[in-house]
Amino acid sequence: MLTHTAEKLPASAWFPFFEKADLLTKALNETQSMKGRTIKIGRFFGPNLNRPVPIQVGGRSGFATLRVENDNHARSKRYFFEIAWEVAVSKETAKAQQCGGPNTEPNTTQTPSGNLPLSEASSTKKSTPIGATLGNDEAWE
């Protein structure tokens, strides 16, 4: 799996994304202040941290995991998605592996489905910001 990290944003900067996705619309519109909206977004993020969610974008599949980075000086949190894309294996490579070709040693870090568990994928690979050399040409809003 290839792992990428999206931009890290404070809860207040996520408001436009919640509006666009129609998440917590009623609760956020009932709240007059941005501070109140930020608190509601942070409370929404809390129980959803570190939970891998399957995603599919442009024919590619992988997992998105909501992560948080604490800034102890400012007592603020920055939220971001860590994206782990599944690497496509060509039919020839899969057939060679099944027939005893190269790389047939069992890989103990993979699950029975052949995918790395996200916790191991994120710990064994360095995160690369979207748009870096390992990224793809997909546009993220």
Describe the protein.
The chain has helices at residues 15-21, 25-30, 34-45, 91-98, 118-124; strands spanning 2-5, 9-10, 52-57, 60-71, 76-85, 128-129. Strands 1, 2, 3, 4, 5 and 6 form a six-stranded mixed sheet that branches. A hairpin with a 2-residue loop joins strand 3 (52-57) and strand 4 (60-71). It has one domain (2-129). Helix content is 28%, strand content 26%. By secondary structure, the chain is α+β, with helices and mostly antiparallel strands.
Give keywords.
single chain; 141 residues; alpha+beta; 6-stranded mixed β-sheet; 5 helices; 28% helix; elongated
How far is it from the N-terminal to the C-terminal residue, by CA?
23 Å
Low-confidence stretches are 104-129
Largest sheet: 6 strands, mixed
Tally of alpha and pi helices: 5
Please state roughly what percent of the residues sit in beta strands, choosing from under 5%, 5-15%, 15-25%, 25-35%, 35-45% or over 45%. Answer: 25-35%
Based on CA atoms alone, the radius of gyration comes out at 19 Å
Q: What letter string, H or E per element, gives the SSE order?
A: EEHHHEEEHHE
Specify the overall morphology: elongated
Q: Helix coverage percent of residues?
A: 25-40%
* Mean pLDDT across every amino acid position: 74
* Number of structural units classed as domains: 1
Number of strands: 6
Oligomer: single chain
Structural class: alpha+beta
